[in-house]
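It is worth pausing here to work through a concrete case rather than discussing structure prediction in the abstract. The textbook approach is simple: state the sequence, then state the predicted structure, then interpret. We follow exactly that order.
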Amino acid sequence: MEKNSYLLAASLICGDFLNLKSDLKLLEKGKIDYIHFDVMDGLFVPRYGLFPEIISQIRSYTNIPLDIHMMVEDAEQYIETFVKAGVNKKNDIFVVHAETTKHLDRVLKKIHEHGIKSGVALNPGTPLTVLDYVLPRLDLVMLMAINPGIVGHKLIPHIIDKVSDLKEKLLKYPDILIEVDGGVNFESAPKMLKAGATMLVCGTQTIYQPDAPLNIKIKELRRHLNTR
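Step two, the predicted structure:
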């Protein structure tokens, strides 16, 4: 895998919130590409996630781009709230789930109107065909490799084929990022990149581990990927 041909996003929900400031400094030191920020409402997925006030704190310490993953019902109503909280840089991405967005084209347009990038997330069982008429509005497609909101689930194997299918679908849209969320580890990550993924969400199976600081684990993962 060529160096810098992929992006790594740190899944913040896996971090130590009693030491958020020090974690952010380690992510900067490790040159992480994005902070992956999970928002969950207990309705679309069976748990709760992060809230916008945390973003204001993050922005006071770092300018690492944000990858906002809205695992909620009706994400449209929250766009302005998150923009005001600090999701307002040109490389920030606001990702909505196709399964809970009634007016997908309208929502993607609204995200762009705020000067940030737009993305659509798809659950494992959601077909790629839902993207057919919104591709021109997309900056990223996130494929869930596990069922969202369930901690500790293993990679659903057919998602590797789904990544390949998505890569082929996006041949006319080479600038759209293909992100994989869930099941990313030292064994699966090279397979995901080989299939066509360009961005990986990294959590407890990669960079958030007790045996070494975040910056060291990020470098270790990159070395592993760059030699595959």
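Step three, interpretation. The mean pLDDT is 95. The first helix runs from residue 20 to 29.
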